[in-house]
Write a structure and sequence with these properties.
0% strand
Amino acid sequence: MNGVWNNHRRGVITKAAAAKRHGGAAGKDRYVATMNLALLFSTLAAVATAVGHSWLGETKILRPLYAERSDDGVLKPIATRRVLRAVFHMPSMMWASTGILTFGFVWHGTTPPVWFVIYGAAVYGISAVGNFWGLRRPHIGNILLTVAAATLVIGSL
C-alpha cells in the first residue's frame, strides 16, 4: 500500500471500495478523476475569489477610503485603519486557506472528511448568501463561492 489509499480513517475511499462501487478498475479511475476535477474546481473558485476580493478591495475600496479621510474622522487613528484592513481581508484568508486545504486532499488522493466538507460548504455558502444579500443582486463573488461550495460537496461524494 502506498499510503495514499488507506481505510483506517473515516471518509477515505479505498481502491477496492471504489472499484467495487463503480464497476471495476476503469470505473474507479473515472470516479476518482471526476471527484478530483470537482475538488480542483472548488479550489480554483475559492482561491480566485480570495485573490480578487483582496486585490480589488485593496485597490478600489480601502486605498481610496484612506486617501479621502478627513483628519478629524473615525479613520484618523492608525490602529483603526489597521483593524479595518485586517477585518476586510479575513474572509479572503479563510476562502484561500480552505481552497488550499482542498487541494491538499486532491494532491494526496483522498476524499475530504465529512467535517471538512461541512465546514467548507458552510464557509463558502454563508459568504455567498451574505454577498448576495449585501449587494441585492448576483455578483461574481457570490457566484464563485456558490460554485466552490457545490463542487466541494460533489467532489466529496
